[in-house]
Structures are given as C-alpha cells and as structure tokens.
Sequence to fold (226 residues):
Amino acid sequence: EVQLVESGGGLVQPGGSLRLSCAASGFTFSSYAMHWVRQAPGKGLQYVSAINSNGGSTYYANSVKGRFTISRDNSKNTLYLQMGSLRAEDMGVYYCARERQAAVDYWGQGTLVTVSS
Amino acid sequence: QSALTQPASVSGSPGQSITISCTGTSSDIGRYNLVSWYQQHPGKAPKLMIYEVTKWPSGVSDRFSGSKSGNTASLTISGLQAEDEADYYCCSYAGSTYVFGNGTKVTVL
Fold:
C-alpha cells in the first residue's frame, strides 16, 4: 500500500524557517517524481514545488522561488521541503504527493504550517 | 502562473449530469493534453479522478469523464450521487510547472 506521511509542520514566526519531511513507503520511491502542494485555510490547492526521480531537476512556483528548496534522499525514501523567509501567505496544509503520468496519484494527509508572531 | 478558471459552484439533483469547466491558456491546457481532476471532501486529502484529460485511475467510477477543447477542459459527472458532493480542482501541466484551478464546489440538491 502506498503511504506518504508528512511531518515537520508547526508554528513559526514571520521570516522564520521550517523543514518538512515526507516518508514514503509501499512503492519504489526512487522511480517517481514527487511534489509539494499546499492549501491555505479555506482556499484552493496551490502547486509549490516538484523534483524528478533522481533529484536532478527541481521546479518551483514563482511565489516560493528563492525561499524554498525541495530535495530528496532516495536511500531513505524521504522527500523534503526546506522553507525560509516564511510569510503569512505561506500558511496552510502542505501535502506531499506522488506524480504519475503528469498527475498526482497519491497524496499524504498533509502537515499544517502556521506563520504567526 | 495564474490559476485556471473554474466556476465557484455547480449544483444538480441526484441522477442528473453536471459539467465543470476549467479555462486556461495556450501555455497550459491549450498546449498539453495533461489535464487532471481532483475531488476533495472536507478535511480530506484530494483524490485523483481523471488524468491526461480523459483517463480514469483504477477504482474511479466511469460516471466521471473528462474532455478538452482548445484552452478549456471539462469534467462531467453523470448520475449524480450524494457522495459526489465535494470540491473539485482541475490541474494542467504548463511546461516545467503545474497550475491548479481555483476550485468548484459541487452541491447535490
């Protein structure tokens, strides 16, 4: 069974940093591109970042470029999102997601990031 | 990277068919046959319903169907059921990035 379990969310002050992790199991992690997608409270889904299967290519939404870094450790079956210079508009639930054929076929349950002083 | 445009809400009675539109540009929907649709119930993670415009993932009912014309994609739900009441999001590949729609709330009357 495919499982994606996010961790690392929490309360952080504006301008602060946070690192999210996503532990993957039930599939060959190193064979799939992975994504981070977020959802602000009461709002829609927003693409944040993606990384190809070997970590050699990364993609970012303009709103997070230069502040967030996506990475992966295929030996640990884990996806990461290092978030810096956090703003109120970065607040929301962050989902880890597996890509297959240009769609997300599995989602984690999400981890909540709150940016507030 | 502007969000794809979806109607805020669509409603229908049980058994009816409804269609949700998703309008993008020639840089996303119009260029690639890589549109996907997601269903999200309150407090839950999204669920993939359609990928590559018209294809069903395993386990998804064929009451859900997708199509595309020009810069607009559509999701049709046939034989509307109470459990279809949820938020629906379209998503398109846009060349090294992805863009989601703003979401449509489907209400079953």
Notes: Chain A touches chain B through 23 residues (CB under 8 Å). The mean pLDDT of chain A is 96. The radius of gyration of chain A is 13 Å.
